[in-house]
Amino acid sequence: MFPPLFFVGECCGIRPRNDFERVPNPPNMDSLAVRWTRNALIACGVLAAGTLSAQPAAEPAKVRWERQCQIRRDKFDRILPSAMRDNGVDMWLVMQKENQFDPMYEDLGRGYVGSVGYYIFTDRGGDRIERVAIGASGGLLEGCNVYDQVRGFAPLKAFIAERNPKRIAVNMSEEVGAADGLSKTSYDRLVKEIGPDFASRIVSAEKVVSDFRSGFTVSQLVAFGEAGEISRRIAERALSNEVVVPGVTTLEDVAWWMMDQLQQRGLGSSFDMPSVYITGPKGIEATSNGRIIQRGDLLIIDWGVGYLNTWTDVKRMSYVLKAGETAVPKGIQTAFDNALKVRDIIRRTIRPGPTAATMMEQLRGEIVKGGFRMQGTFNEVTNDGQVEVMIGCHSVGDRGHGSGPSIAAFNPRQMTFNIKPFNPFSIELFAWTPNPEWGGAKVRIPLEDDAIVTERGVEWLYPVNQRIGLIK
């Protein structure tokens, strides 16, 4: 999912995008007659609202907690040492106040914090990192048994002096939000408490946070794959006759049905309300509002699911058949096939090792070799008869838009990060293909599914989008 604001990058110029793609329009009230019709269909079971009670409930809270404990233990054991050592950090200090939660709060185990608390990770040699929670408590935090010590109040300066770190990383970052949880007042308090000597050793934890959050373990990948499977199944059901009745169902109806599915399962939403939109010869026409779905519409869903603190970003699409049609029109199908070709180029090209910016240049070269033209400014379509392409293969997993290396111009800082094995990516692309059936106007086809990058390349975590769905 592309964000509302783009930055002009070295590889491609980007401007602010149409808000329709992320932010739903305020719902429009359709006519009373249409609402009566829709309500009657729901009551008769024609629409999918009546099927919600049959959906599986969330698994027990303890099961989820146990799985998150395992993920946290694996991350502390397998990912944290290299995240600190590769970035020259021998102490990482995350400060927490009551009701002021650092973005790392969930990753580090939560817990109750009174006036102030600290999660402190110190490299004292060996094959692991010392983990201590000071001023944080609670049965769930302690029960995970991933910290060496969980203390009440303890003098922070004496604790640090005993370990005498050379570089103390704290969560301050200009561009990576997950690494910017320390407020100005908390920073001032920290500096005062530890004194000028240790304060002079403070550095940004930006790369520590990025490497820790984007370095996925097997236990985390299992959860992420499950989240992806849930994401695509709900999206595919949403864009089917199970939910959509042409001439009756609105875009907003579909979006709320999806939100109901999340609520039933106790799942989060990566981007709040799902973007359910219609694209046509003039681009995006409407998003998640009261627009009634009609025959001939090309429907797209852009959304993500949160499960066990992993977060997805997925797209799916369907075509609403006109009377007498039995398949997707040729012009739209050709456009979709072109998008699949671009995705295959991306899948074959991305490898760990280079920076995301270097990989962007490689991808642009391979896509041009494939006979496509890279679009200069997102959503600015030209009438040149060529297939235009834009890519935004961003970090994903720790959030819908993640903290790791990002092959996307809207993450300029993360473009400088190196791609590492087992980094998760959203393989996102847009392809615009001239359509004779639309008078030569270009069909905008977005594809997006989540994957990991290994030494073998891009590896999918669940069945990716291979076709345009049909709504009869």
TrEMBL record:
Name of this protein: Peptidase M24 domain-containing protein
Residue ranges of domain Peptidase M24 in the record: 226-455
Organism, scientific name: Gemmatimonas aurantiaca (strain DSM 14586 / JCM 11422 / NBRC 100505 / T-27)
Alphabetized Gene3D superfamilies for the sequence: Creatinase/methionine aminopeptidase superfamily (3.90.230.10)
Source taxon at top rank: Bacteria
